[in-house]
Write a structure and sequence with these properties.
With about 400 residues, the protein is of the alpha/beta class. It folds into two domains: about 180 residues, FAD/NAD(P)-binding domain (3-Layer(bba) Sandwich), CATH 3.50.50.60; about 170 residues, Polyamine Oxidase, Chain A, domain 2 (Alpha-Beta Complex), CATH 3.90.660. Helix content is about 30%, strand content about 20%. A hairpin with a 3-residue loop joins β16 and β17. α1 packs parallel to α12 and α3 crosses α4. It binds flavin-adenine dinucleotide (FAD). Flavin-adenine dinucleotide (FAD) binds next to α1, β15 and α12.
């Protein structure tokens, strides 16, 4: 009996492998990179304390299956959400303005949730006059990785997001690495071709071929589209679902300062409001170190990353200087942590956002082909898309479906 081959050791692939191991079914998990975790990776080497290059928060912690796993494995996470503060035109928002801004955001998200059709989110706000609309544009880019012009209202309305977002202070990548411990994994084994023309499915890698009866594809939609040669090609309905779920952009820069520079700023999440194009936020002082992690979202993130690491660093430092004074520049340490997911050949973006009118593509993507090719990953989740727990649950479901055949 050939094993079930899982391609991609991110959250979905690891969840699938753990489920097959529990079911005592032969499997092998094949990963292109030298390490597992996919979009969940923690850097400890650069600053000596954990910095997440990708996912960092438990969303919807009350029903997030990774929370009890973190408890069991002793991976730390914060008990409360980070306190946020907006900054605009050289000053922090007053408490009253901050409340007005938060109320506007809540009402804007409620409007999307209440709308039954599938239009560009921009069309739900035909003539925004509120001074807080740019905060909404930035927040949406952070959640979707794309602009309101590109976001499907139905796709976003289906997203379930409840309770506070809890930072995984011990490292989300650390958690995933622990969850992958003891699994049958072949790292540094990129799959270049999947031949499903015969009875066996033949998988080609630089270190040889593997035959499988069934496979689980747990890779991003961008890699599904361009990274693997399928023979024969995937059917049109599947290819359409993949094309209707392009990835957005979210990249990161973490900077460490050699002296305390954030003063008595009470917030641990600071958000400069810089108009429609630049959607940026900073997490401050994690692990009690003087580190600022900058998240840059949407098309601007990709443009900046294309200019290189120095441009990303300069940008993050300039925004911190806007908020904390240009004097901080002399205290920045020479090392940075840079995450450019757009130009990572095995990911190619941050998370999938459905094209307008195509919110059902997620359910289509999750449908197996021929009961032999199964699909998993964040893009397959209809309610927790873009999230690690969404990917995790689709991995478990794909493993159960593949094992049932
Ligand atoms: C900057 C950023 C911040 C985020 N923040 C959060 C957050 O706070 N909370 C949250 O819940 N989610 C967050 N997310 C989203 C979350 O990280 C993803 O939704 C989730 O990790 C995706 O998991 P996955 O298993 O679907 O795919 P991936 O993690 O992409 O895993 C796919 C794996 O397949 C491998 N692979 C690709 N091609 C091949 C090949 N040819 N052969 C073999 N292997 C291959 C890749 O190397 C990768 O390891 C964030 C993402 C980013 C980029």
């Amino acid at each position: 009996m050939n094993p079930i081959v899982i391609i991609g050791a991110g959250a979905a692939g690891i969840a699938a492998a753990r489920r097959l191991q529990e079911l005592e079914r032969p499997y092998v998990l094949v990963e292109a990179k030298a390490f597992t975790g996919g979009r969940c990776v923690t850097d400890r080497a650069t600053f000596g304390s954990p910095v997440d290059l990708g996912a960092h928060w438990f969303h919807s912690p009350a029903f997030n299956p990774l929370v009890p796993l973190a408890d069991r494995l002793g991976v730390r996470y914060a008990a409360e959400a980070l306190r946020g503060r907006y900054h605009r035109d050289g000053s922090w928002l007053t408490d009253a303005d901050q409340t007005a801004c938060e109320n506007y955001l809540e009402a804007a998200f409620d409007r999307i949730a209440a709308f039954a059709g599938d239009v560009a989110i921009k069309d739900l706000f035909p003539d925004p006059t509120s001074p807080w609309h740019d905060a909404f544009l930035a927040e949406l880019r952070a959640k979707q990785g794309v602009t309101v012009e590109e976001s499907s209202s139905r796709d976003f309305a289906r997203y379930v997001w409840k309770g506070d977002d809890l930072p995984v202070t011990g490292g989300f990548g650390t958690l995933l690495a622990k969850l992958a411990d003891g699994l049958n994994i072949r790292t540094a084994t990129p799959v270049s071709r999947v031949d499903w023309s015969g009875r066996n499915i033949r998988i080609t890698t630089p270190v040889g071929t593997i035959d499988a009866d069934r496979i689980i594809l747990a890779i991003s939609t961008a890699v599904l589209r361009e990274g693997i040669d399928f023979h024969p090609s995937l059917p049109d309905w599947k290819q359409r679902a993949i094309d209707d779920l392009p990835l957005g952009s979210c990249n990161k820069v973490a900077l460490r300062f050699t002296v305390p520079v954030f003063g008595d700023c009470p917030a641990s999440l600071v958000l400069p409001l810089r108009g429609a194009h630049e959607a940026v936020e900073f997490v401050l002082r994690e692990s009690e170190a003087e580190i600022a992690t900058c998240l840059i979202n949407g098309p601007f993130a990709k443009e900046l990353a294309a200019e290189g690491a120095a441009a990303m660093t300069d940008y993050a430092l300039a925004r911190l200087a806007d908020m904390f004074g240009s004097g901080i520049k002399k205290w920045v340490s020479p090392q940075q942590v840079i995450a450019d997911w757009d130009h990572d050949p095995f990911i190619r973006g941050c998370y999938a956002a459905a094209r307008i009118g195509h919110a059902d593509a997620r359910a289509e993507l999750a449908i197996p082909i021929d009961e032999r090719l199964f699909f998993a990953g964040e893009a397959c989740s209809v309610t927790y898309m873009g999230d690690v727990h969404g990917a995790w649950l689709t991995g478990t479901a794909a493993a159960e479906a593949a094992a049932a055949q």
